[in-house]
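User: Last request for today: this protein with coenzyme A, please.
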Amino acid sequence: MPKNSKPVRESKVIMTELVLPNDTNPLNNLMGGRLMHWMDIVSAIAAQRHSNRVVVTASVDNISFSQPIALGNVVTLEAKVTRAFHSSMEVHIVVTSENLNSGEKFESNRAFFTFVAVDQSGRPISIPEAVPETAEEKELYDGALRRRQLRLILGKRMKPEEANELKAIFKLEEEKVKK
Ligand SMILES: CC(C)(COP(=O)(O)OP(=O)(O)OC[C@H]1O[C@@H](n2cnc3c(N)ncnc32)[C@H](O)[C@@H]1OP(=O)(O)O)[C@@H](O)C(=O)NCCC(=O)NCCS
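Assistant: Here's the final one, the structure of the complex with coenzyme A:
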């Protein structure tokens, strides 16, 4: 492994929370904002574990809530860095919910958060590369560049014509349609 790099697996963080009354809405289901707070914390720890730096949240990709999570359920959040760029890194979070009485478990959502490592003055600072090892880690690593380009375009930090990775995908799709 190159000197300034670390395996993705070393950034892994698992956080377990119990849904308490103070976390819920009037329907006794977990509030979305509380879940997003936990997602921010678990992914920030993964980013700090990878970079050994102070990190700030730069962006959060869209999060959808497919099923409610009930009071008393256990929520497990698993986060891992997918890919590191210069000062920023993408973190993948998988959230599962478990009913301890019935044993039923379901995946509640997945999301990508981006963090930037900063120095004591809040200026971006370079970080080690993240090396994927498993097939899933490699797939997430490969997709990270196109997700980065998409979020930088949406954040008005990149011109669409500069997004080569995204353009290549659209070109491939165009060729498939023509065939
Ligand atoms: C994130 C932040 C440090 C970027 O600083 P900046 O001076 O704009 O820095 P740069 O333009 O050099 O970008 C630094 C990195 O951030 C990334 N970045 C900046 N905005 C981004 C966004 N909206 N989405 C994803 N990545 C972003 C850049 O791509 C770059 O990554 P790279 O170094 O890996 O190539 C700065 O905008 C900031 O401090 N934001 C507030 C963070 C915060 O307080 N979060 C909590 C909100 S309550």
